[in-house]
Design goal:
The protein has 251 residues and is of the alpha/beta class. The chain has one domain: Alpha-Beta Complex (Spore Coat Polysaccharide Biosynthesis Protein SpsA, Chain A). It has 9 helices and 9 strands. The strands form 2 sheets. Strands 3-2-1-4-7-5-8 form a 7-stranded mixed β-sheet, sandwiched between helices. Strands 6-9 form a two-stranded parallel ribbon. Helix 2 links the parallel strand 2 and strand 3. Helix 1 packs parallel to helix 2, helix 5 runs parallel beside helix 8 and helix 7 packs parallel to helix 8. The radius of gyration is 17 Å and the shape is globular. Bound molecules: guanosine-5'-triphosphate and magnesium ion.
Length: 251
């Protein structure tokens, strides 16, 4: 039987992007359901999503009251998906940076692993249309996360990923505190520390086609401090603990 798949897409002012992204998801994964989590976007994305959901029974929308950050949007999306019995829960940006053509590759890897991360930086660099300074910051941030926490992945700030249900069920979602890039790091780090097997698949990342970036200095600052906080939480231990460590070694 095919795994019940949910693609969660947070949106804030993504009016031009939500139509094309849902068409592309269904082109490559016709049976997947899509859950948009919109934070009352001033540009009317929420109303457009309601129309799309009314026209296609594979599309769903959650509405937040105000811009509460990417992390909060995903946490409410995960809870929604777990309550409704999905087996695989994807994270994907709305802006076209995460190519839905990769979904089948994630699905294949998820049949062997517990958490699958899209990576821009393993076996080469696959980032299109980013200014050099942004690329260097992103690559350096990845190295920094690995250096401080030991998390053995090549692109820990990436936001294109696929969780199996068991991983999300094992995580106390209400205890996940971070919101911006550090949300991606905190989720993967928490899964890894719990002993889950992490797989990586190569993705090509393209800068957003339309709309504007919501990245801010505050988000970068949050990520810097969160990395230290995560490492401290486990007293700078660099591998999963207890039974989890045995599970990890056995894999
Ligand atoms: N619901 C919700 N979605 C958000 C929020 N902030 C960002 N998003 C969405 O999260 C995704 C990633 O945000 P982006 O602004 O693309 O961040 P980024 O990919 O790091 O930066 P750019 O690609 O340069 O814009 C997009 O789909 C955004 O619309 C938020 O506060 N609430
Ligand atoms: Mg983006």
């Amino acid at each position: 039987m095919q795994a019940k798949t949910l693609v969660i897409i947070p949106t804030y002012d993504e009016r031009e992007n939500v139509g094309p992204i849902s068409t592309a998801v269904h082109k490559h994964a016709p049976e997947a359901h899509i859950l948009f989590v919109d934070d009352n976007s001033p540009d009317g994305t929420g109303e457009l999503l309601d129309k799309m959901a009314a026209a296609d029974d594979r599309i769903f929308v959650l509405h937040g009251k105000e811009k509460a950050g990417l992390g909060r949007a995903y946490i409410s999306g995960f809870k929604w998906g777990l309550e409704r019995g999905y087996d695989l829960l994807f994270e994907m940006d709305a802006d076209g940076s995460h190519d839905p053509a990769c979904i089948p590759v994630f699905l294949d890897e998820a049949s062997r692993g517990d958490l699958v991360l899209g990576t821009r930086y393993k076996c080469g660099i696959r980032v299109i249309n980013w200014p050099l300074n942004r690329l260097l910051i992103s690559m350096f941030a990845g190295k920094f996360v690995r250096f401080v926490t030991g998390l053995p992945v090549s692109d820990p700030t990436g936001g294109y990923k696929c969780f199996t249900r068991r991983v999300l069920e094992s995580i106390d979602l209400d205890a996940i505190r971070s919101n911006g890039y550090s949300f991606q790091i905190e989720m993967s780090y928490t899964a890894w520390m719990a002993g889950w097997r992490i797989g990586e698949v190569p993705i090509v990342f393209e800068d957003r086609r339309a709309g504007y970036s919501k990245l801010s200095k505050a988000i970068a600052r949050e990520a810097f401090w969160m990395v230290w906080r995560l490492a401290w939480r486990n007293r700078f231990r660099r591998r999963p603990r207890g039974r989890a460590a045995e599970d990890w070694a056995a894999r």
